Amino acid sequence: xxIAAVALAVGSVSIPLPEVIGAxxxxxxxxxxxxxxxxxxxxxxxxxxxxxxxxxxxxVFQALLRNPLAEPYILGVSSGAAVGAVTAIVFGMTATSxxxxxxxxxxxxxxxxxLVLLMAGARRRGLDTRVLLLAGVVIGAFFNAIILLIINFAxxxxxRAAMLWIMGSFAGASTEGVTAVLVYVGPxxxxxxxxxxxxxxxxxxxxxxxxxxxxVGRFKLLIYIVxxxxxxVCVAGAGAIGFVGLVxxxxxRLIGGSDHRWLxxxxxxxxxxxxxxxxxxxxxxxxxxxxPVGVVTALVGVPVFxxxxxxxxxxx
Length: 316
What we know:
This protein is mainly alpha-helical. It has one domain (2-315): ABC transporter involved in vitamin B12 uptake, BtuC, CATH 1.10.3470. 76% of the residues lie in helices and 0% in strands. Helix 3 (30-65) packs parallel to helix 8 (175-194). The longest helix has 36 residues, at 30-65. The mean pLDDT is 83.
């Protein structure tokens, strides 16, 4: 709540907190009312939704793959979703259908995850986590190349908007956009929270989970579909924002352990606060200009990723 209040108050125009509260109650000056409720509030809510969704998705991927380095951006899922979304934008599909963007992003996320899993399991020796991460990096690089190829067919304005969106941005947040993301992401996050117990069992090992009554094959398929929906909609709404799903779950595990009954709700709250804070920093540090929020999350996430990678090598 404190981070959200600060985000509503600061920006290229600073607004005292009492006036922010007045605007939220509909009792402020018209200019302040427009800035707070028309511009900043949708942005803060969207950043909170996307942050919660990405953090929870990261925690789920890490449980499924039993690897603390797994997260949608590193596994190439975000890049796949971005290919679908960019295709819909550049070729005008969004002009004729409101669902074209999230559906295209979802399809891209599914394709990316399928390719990564196919590469990681190609030798039929199970999912080698090192091969999985390498496959994610390779697939992500491949899809990023496809994105650059697609946007070459765009006009100048679409090209600029696409490049900003690819790096992650909440600049275009609106009430309609927030509603669209909530319709898709809200039920998906509820489903993930309800699956906390089988995730606990699966994180121990597939054999143990099977003997304790979990239909591992169907459960993993369900999780892959739900998380792909979540990632696809997040990418459609705000672009490819990386490392939220890496930093937040790892930090929370250090604090309170790996029980997903508390970890998933904690990831939702912390992820929301983390991305709201990152977006606030992105739009204020060089005001009135704005940094892509993905740049801010990468500046935090890359050192954490490298530290986790070195730590896993030491432990191995």
